[in-house]
Amino acid sequence: MKTMNVALLAILLSVALLSSCARQDTTPPADSALPAVFGDGADAKYDRVDNVHQVRFVEIFLVGREAGTGDVVAAVYNTMYTPQGIPASKDTAPQTLLEGLNFDHIQKGYGVLGASLNGPKLCLPDWVEIDVGAERDFDGLAAVWCAQLNMGNNTSVAEIATYKPVTIARNSGLGWNKGTTVILLDDAEGNTWVMKGFELGLEPQYTYDKFLAALPGVYQKLPEGWKVRVKTLEEDLIEKPEGGVATIMKDEFFNVYDKTGPGMTNYKP
After folding, report:
1. Domain locations along the chain
2. What pTM was estimated for this model as a whole?
């Protein structure tokens, strides 16, 4: 009996030690439920990148659940803001690298609930100011932390509903220069949204120019009371969300829009 008690005690101590090691390996100090990658913005530095209009990029979303609230959030990594800068080709997300991404491997490797791809897209502002955090390697594709997105109950970016606003913690500034042509959505509540990212996808259905030329008829699923506009800006449009929280939305083509107006931009276009 004494021998059995000693053996049982040894097993219990081993299990406790293994559990402790697992917590230390995967959990940042700030939140016991989130994997270590959610600390990638802790030492982020504010940076400005110019001449980003129609730069091709992708974002990688790594998803976890907050312990305090149970909310699903995503650490967002962008290929445009790496130390390597933007190449002459304006392509920061080469197709060959994207086709080699294994999201099951990425999810397991970073210990997250889910991993997914946003893009490839074309960036439509003319310049960006943003907090840039740690760089990560995704099967050979380099991307840096730039934001944390509230995902609701979704574990993949593809699950987020169209024409439904979501918030993103993003210390940033975006600028569209005077003379730049923008695509706008006016919703039924009187809000105006400006397209920030044009979806190319891995198998593009439209070029940006062809999409622009097909407006507004290309939209088939706009909510009732919504309208599409194309406008050439008569003055600079500058977006700097108050409190570091932006409100964004995707459309039926997976294009991404940012809300404009008070607390978001210097004016509503």
Report:
1. 37-259
2. 0.80
